[in-house]
Each structure stands twice: as structure tokens, then as C-alpha cells.
Amino acid sequence: CLTPALLPMYNVESSIVVIIDIFRATSSICYGIENGAEAIIPVSQVEECAAYRDKGLNYLLAAERNGEVVIGFDFGNSPFAYTAEKVKDKTVVLTTTNGTHALHLSLKAKKIVVGSFLNLSALSEWLKVQNDDILLVCAGWKNKFNLEDTVFAGAVISKIKSSKHKLDDSAIAAEDLYELAKPDLAAYLSKTSHSERLKKLGIEKDIAFCLNVDITTSIPVLKGDRLVKMTC
Ligand code: MLT
């Protein structure tokens, strides 16, 4: 099976789960891991993130809600906060509105990896040679469908589908949407509700950055409670 889980409500236990939150959690995670962050610890609640303050000075605390940095934290979810200068050799504790939530709902998965347009080809090449079912978990927005995560799921499907995969209707729909979007991803995805939200906050540059295809090759993978760079 090769399924984009349009909502994180599927049985994850026998699957490799790819967490997808294009604007912006999984794009920022991919960028941070590529830029040498030792680990990114995804937590669900702002309070859990804040609790790391008492665990030592080695943690950078990142919290985002509704697109904005939560007051009192080092930064939020902008990919520009995950440059080598800021995160190399550091451990970031991160909570976001949807991305880290979707990851926590998927904790029973056989394996959890993180995808974004930034690592599309590297991720797809790795997925191609896996024999387990693959669940593309689209974080969406507050448990609702969103277009950018689904279009990315379609991009993965179009790259990796083969005779060993059974595509259900959601996989076919996601791939069709990707084909529609592919000629001009930025223009197609400019109509999404989260683009509108981010534009209102004046952070169009984050949207453009998250649509850079294949600028990284790292695949973040969950080991224990931390996302680290996959070593094959
Ligand atoms: C999320 O996890 O909901 C997001 O990535 C929201 C954002 O910061 O744009």
C-alpha cells in the first residue's frame, strides 16, 4: 500500500510514516537537520517545550502557534531560524500547531521520517527501496485537509510508485493534484489558506523557501524522542 493519509487517522503500526507539514514545520526540520542540528525533539505542548529550560543550557527552545513565535521562546517555525549558524551541533526542542502534533499521533509507526520539498528526491529514493507500507501523513491545519501537504504527498507518489504499491483513491487524487501544481508550484499553492495566513503575518519569504525542491539530502528520522539525521 502507498497512501497519503489526508488526516492522521490511519492505522500506522505496520507502516513507515512520512510526516508532512510543508508550511512550515517539516521544511524547517529538514533544513535544521541538514544544517547540522544534533537533534530536533518534537513535543506536542508549549509547556513541554518550556520544561526543557530547566534541563540545561544546551537546548534551543522553539515554539509556534497559529504561525507566530510563542512569546518567551528562542524562535518558532521559520526555516530561516534553522541555519547552520543558529542550529549546528545544537538540540532544538520544537512544538508547532500541526506538524509536531501529527508526529505524536503517529508514534506507533514502524518508523517515522520527515519529508518536505527540500528533501523530496533523497526521501523518495530511500522510500523506493523500502518494503513496508508507506503512510504519507499530511498534518493539515487543525485536523483539516490542506492543499500543500497533499500536493507534496502526490509528488512523492509520482516519484516512487511502482507495481509493488496499491494506490487508493487518496493516492490517485494527491498525484493528480501534484500534476496540476507541478508547472508552477508557487502559483498553485499561493491559493492555500495557510499561505494567506502567513502572508498576513508578513512572512511570504518563508512560503517561497519551503517550495525549494531538493536543496537538502538529509532524511530526519525519529530515534527515541528525537529526530536525527538518518545514516544508511
Ligand atoms: C504547523 O505545525 O502548524 C506549522 O508548521 C505552522 C507554521 O508555523 O506555519
Summarize it.
This protein has helices at 25-34, 46-51, 84-87, 99-105, 120-128, 147-160, 169-181, 185-189, 193-200, 204-210, and strands at 2-5, 15-20, 39-42, 59-65, 68-69, 91-95, 111-115, 133-138, 220-223, 226-229. It has 232 residues and is of the alpha/beta class.
Strand-helix topology:
Elements: E1 2-5, E2 15-20, H1 25-34, E3 39-42, H2 46-51, E4 59-65, E5 68-69, H3 84-87, E6 91-95, H4 99-105, E7 111-115, H5 120-128, E8 133-138, H6 147-160, H7 169-181, H8 185-189, H9 193-200, H10 204-210, E9 220-223, E10 226-229
Parallel strand pairs: 1-8, 2-7, 2-8, 3-6, 4-6
Antiparallel strand pairs: 4-5, 9-10
D-malate is lined by residues 21, 23-25, 64, 67, 77, 96-99.
Verbal overview:
The protein has a single domain, classed as ComB-like (putative 2-phosphosulfolactate phosphatase). The chain is an alpha/beta fold and 232 residues long. It has ten helices and ten strands. The chain binds D-malate. The site of D-malate has 11 residues, from loops. It comes from Hufsiella arboris. InterPro entries: ComB-like, ComB-like_sf. This is Probable 2-phosphosulfolactate phosphatase. Its EC number is 3.1.3.71.
Keywords:
binds D-malate; 232 residues; four-stranded mixed sheet; ComB-like; alpha/beta; four-stranded parallel sheet; putative 2-phosphosulfolactate phosphatase; globular
How would you spell out the order of helices and strands? EEHEHEEHEHEHEHHHHHEE
Which ligands occur here? D-malate
Number of helices: 10
Cα Rg = 16 Å
Family: Belongs to the ComB family.
EC number: 3.1.3.71
Enzyme class: hydrolase
Protein name: Probable 2-phosphosulfolactate phosphatase
